Every structure is written in structure tokens, then in C-alpha cells.
Amino acid sequence: MATLGLIGSGHIGGSLARLAVNAGLDVVLSNSRGPETLADLVAELGPRARAATPAEAAEAGDWVVVTIPLKNAFELDAAPLAGRLVLDTGNYYPDRDGHFAELDSGEFTSSELVQRHLAGATVVKVFNNIYFGHLLSLARPSGAPDRSALPIAGDDAAAKQRVTELLDTLGYLAVDAGTLGDSWRFQPGTPAYGLPYLKDQQARLDQDPGRPAGPSAIQEALDAATR
């Protein structure tokens, strides 16, 4: 059985774990505080889920999701992730992460810096542009007419295909947004960041029920992005 490894088990990580278990995948969760702190979430998820260390989650995962604050991503031990497919959900928030000159200048994207740090891994950017509540509520089975799409970006075509297959399993379509250098098109502040999935763009995120956003809506938002 395929396994989703999670380094970080907060809002996005927990939502992905729920979608994965519902889809019949095994899940290995981890965080920076130790496996014992994930006991309640593991109990909720059931027998397909277990808690472990980040290194163990990296070893177990057919896909390894890194879903932690960007500033902490550069503190990850790169060795356990060498040779792994890493799904980067991170966003750059200077107020939280501190300033990075290479990001402030637009010379690099945050995922390019994550790839540089995790040099032995293959990084694909995904899951960063959708509110975690909408990530859970908008998942639909294959063939559903109101299936939503998520943008992905990466430098390896085979890796992006594997991520597309995971998205299909979890309930989503994929829109290829290009390379990691192109991933700025769905970073914070762009039309593709959160907005396509909002039913009421004036409502608070935690009060908005969400709305489906298919591939054409996501592509249109990507195309509208400017720097």
C-alpha cells in the first residue's frame, strides 16, 4: 500500500492525512515535538496512520510532504530526504520567517531555496495556495463534474506526474504551472492564492464554505499573476 509521509502535522498536514486515509493510503505523521504529541490525531485517523520522527516519515513515504514554516524548512536534516520526492507546501511570510534577500528581490522562489537545501531530493511545489478547510471540503472523487484543481510546479516531469497521481487519489486535478522558478505564480498575493476557492471573497477564510475551481479557473489565475 502506498504511503504518505508528513513532516509537519498542523492544519495542512492534518488535512492531507485525513484525505489520504479516506483514500486508502497509509500515513506516517511527524512533527518537531515528538511522536507522542500526535497520539490524538493518530487515534482519530485510525489504523492506517502512525506517528514517527521526521526521518522515519521521510523513509516511509512514497511522497513526503514538508509542511512547516519556511524558516524551519532550512533547518531540516537533508540526509533522510535524499532520493525522496518532496512536496513543498510552504509560503514565504517575512513577518514570520524573517527576510531573505533572494526572495525579496525575486531572484529565487521559496521552493527553489528549499530544493537547494534539500539537494538530494526532488521538490515539487503543491498545496500552498489553498486554505486547509477548503482543501478538505472541496475534494471530489474521480469523474465528478465539480472537481477542483491545484497548481503544481517542479523541475522534474516524472516527479510532477507522480504528484498528479497523488492529487487524483486525494480528490483533485492538477494544473502544471511550470518549474520551481515559475511557482511565484501561485504564491501569496497572486490571483491563484486562495481566491479561486472562495465563495465569498469578502468573508473570513474560516467562515467561507468554499467553491470548486476547475483547471480553467486555476490556469486563468496563474496567467493573471504579475511581479
Question: What does the secondary structure layout of this molecule look like, with pairings?
Answer:
Elements (H helix, E strand, L loop, with lengths): L2 E5 L3 H12 L3 E5 L8 H7 L3 E3 L2 H7 L2 E4 L3 H4 L11 E4 L5 H4 L3 H4 L5 H8 L4 E4 L6 H6 L11 E6 L2 H14 L2 E4 L38 H9 L4
Parallel strand pairs: 1-2, 1-4, 2-3, 4-5, 5-6, 7-8
Antiparallel strand pairs: 6-7
Please supply descriptive tags for the structure shown above.
single chain, 227 residues, alpha/beta
Description:
Strands 3-2-1-4-5-6-7-8 form an eight-stranded mixed β-sheet, with helices on both faces. It has 227 residues and is of the alpha/beta class. The longest helix has 14 residues, at 157-170. The chain is built from ten helices and eight strands. The protein starts with a strand and ends with a helix. The mean pLDDT is 97. Strand 4, helix 4 and strand 5 form a beta-alpha-beta unit. It is 33% helix and 15% strand.
